[in-house]
User: Fold these one by one.
Assistant:
Number 1:
Amino acid sequence: MNNINVIALSGSLRKASYTTKLANAFIKAAPAGVSIELVDISLLPLINEDLETDLPEPVRMLREQVQAADAVLLATPEYNRSYTPALKNALDWASRPSGHNCWNGKPAAIVGCSPFTLGGFGAVHHLRQVLVYLNMPAMQQPEFYLQLIADKMNDKGEITDQSTREHIDKFWGAFVVWIRLVNAK
Ligand SMILES: Cc1cc2nc3c(=O)[nH]c(=O)nc-3n(C[C@H](O)[C@H](O)[C@H](O)COP(=O)(O)O)c2cc1C
């Protein structure tokens, strides 16, 4: 595998989302040899098996993007100690119809964040559980929980905190190794 194609999903649909800004910071910090784009999950209808006979266009697009990707970066805020319905909706759509799970075997990494102190810990761990069933090998270390995110980026979403920047680079280094390892099988 030469160039690695990664897709990033943000679990927040909010225009001023910290999570989307964090996903964009990861995109900006992507190492050489990695192409990465943010997938728009805001136009997906709410999951409904009735729609599976004629998949809506945003669902088709998502499925194509997932199928073409070598790996998936999932960024999530925490909603009531879990990840968000928007992210679950995207995961569910690309897992359907039954027997056509596009996520199957895709290496993944999860980053959690919060303007508060837990850094999205609950969200990340609920998400890990679902990735097990989707058969997505999720990188275990290093973990990424960014607490107090509002203090660590400027208005443009650039990370101003040096240790966070270093952790993003370290995370990317490990993720590239993980992607190559999983996809070599
Ligand atoms: C329904 C809901 C539940 C929330 N629950 C949590 C929570 O469990 N833990 C937490 O740290 N923040 C929680 N928050 C606050 C979010 O962390 C905060 O709104 C954050 O900015 C959302 O991410 P975003 O900026 O990417 O949209 C919750 C927000 C919403 C809307």
Note: The radius of gyration is 16 Å.
Number 2:
Amino acid sequence: VEAHAIAVDLGGTGLRAARIDRFGNILDRLEVATKAQAGADAVLEQISELVDSIIKNASDARILGVGVCAPGPLDTKRGIALSIPTINGFDNYPLLAKLQECLALPVVLENDAIAAAVGEWKFGAGLGSENIVYVTVSTGIGGGIIADGKVLRGRQGMAGHIGHMIVVPDGELCNCGCRGCFEAYGSGPAFAARAKIRANQGNQTLLGKNNAKIDCPAIFAAAKAKDPLAIELVREEAEILGRGFTSLAHLFSPDLIVMGGGLANEFDCLIPAILKNFRANSMKAFQNIPIRCSILGGSSGLIGASSLLFEQFHTPK
Ligand SMILES: [Zn+2]
């Protein structure tokens, strides 16, 4: 029988699980809303139920174990969730030990953005490259780095928190508690917040017309309908991202930068201005680094987590 991995992606809103083969193919997939307010035990029970359901559907396979990815900061060297800002009850929580106990299978634990970077590296936009910077832009900004053909993990396995590069001194308050972080300017909520303020300043715009909700999809839709304010807002967002990507290019000299997360759904809309800004701000020798859209989309973390599990536990017979 073929060996398969189960991957679990623990997010602040959705909890997803999948059965995946060693070629990165998703064979089965389930998703529930995370009980983010109910405490760690309730969430562990949800994970356990999802894994059980997937195992029930997998009579044709041998399950190697479970690759779990979760938001950080996560000390993956010790298997401890230091805090998960979007889910209650995970402060200094021994996540790896608890998962091993309740799943009774081998478990690999990884930071979600690092897992997504691995997924894109092994099976997605970064296939064949040795140096990749993966950036996810959604409710926050996260990242993962592949350098010299290896996953960059750093102290406590926490490398790649690129959303918290400080880009403005004493700037906007970030979700992390610090001020002026890249995330506090470039994330989806920051983008939408800017749009709300500007739409309320009496600018001529479709945004917020008839009390319509001003969120990221609304801004992109208005920009596509040639709304001048929305076009300006999209250009500004792309400039913020382009500046961030410039710093990342200078730091890591990747073969390519891969953009994922919710805002990557509008990659085509953002990329002209991202590239323009990236090239205007970076040193000449870095200007030709490609910036590509994630290929695996919302599955990059799941596929990366499964790949890490195969790497650690699969010994082909
Ligand atoms: Zn921050």
Note: The chain is about 35% helix and 20% strand.
